[in-house]
């Protein structure tokens, strides 16, 4: 098994686990050990809950989709193509995963700004 496949699997499972943790701990008080920790998210308990629910859901979707894509590609498609093409596709899957994670955190921060900045 190629190292890029292992990295893809670990990355997607880490994102999925991060999303589950955000959703699980969104009811707890804001702290610096776990969750969506930005200045806006930690400004109030309502903002903390909103940010962790929103980003947690997006990360769970992203992690599940990327894990499924990696497994489907590895099991069903990879055997029919060259190893260099396989590595390129796995690299593209990793870039898509990272892009989805950056988008989800940026989108959550944007939603926080829209929803909570005008209340200050």
Structure explained in plain terms:
Helix content is 74%, strand content 0%. It is an all-alpha fold and 120 residues long. It has one domain (3-119). It is elongated and about 55 Å long. It starts with a helix and ends with a helix. The mean pLDDT is 90.
**How many separate helices?**
3
Low-confidence stretches: none
How many structural domains? 1
Distance between the termini: 52 Å
Secondary structure tally: strands: 0
- Name the overall outline: elongated
Beta-strand level of the residues, as a percent range? under 5%
How does the helix and strand content classify structurally?
mainly alpha
Reading the helices and strands in chain order gives HHH
Helix content: over 70%
Largest sheet: none
**Rg (CA only):** 17 Å
Mean pLDDT: 90
In short:
By secondary structure, the protein is mostly helical. The protein contains three helices and no strands.
């Amino acid at each position: 098994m190629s190292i890029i496949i292992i990295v893809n699997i670990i990355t997607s499972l880490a994102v999925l686990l991060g999303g589950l943790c955000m959703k699980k701990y969104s009811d707890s008080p804001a702290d610096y050990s776990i969750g969506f920790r930005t200045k806006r998210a930690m400004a109030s308990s309502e903002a903390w809950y909103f940010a962790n629910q929103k980003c947690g859901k997006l990360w769970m979707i992203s992690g599940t989709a990327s894990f499924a894509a990696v497994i489907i590609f590895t099991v069903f498609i990879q055997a029919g193509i060259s190893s260099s093409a396989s590595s390129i596709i796995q690299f593209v899957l990793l870039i898509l995963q990272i892009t989805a994670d950056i988008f989800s955190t940026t989108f959550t921060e944007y939603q926080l700004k829209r929803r909570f900045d005008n209340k200050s």
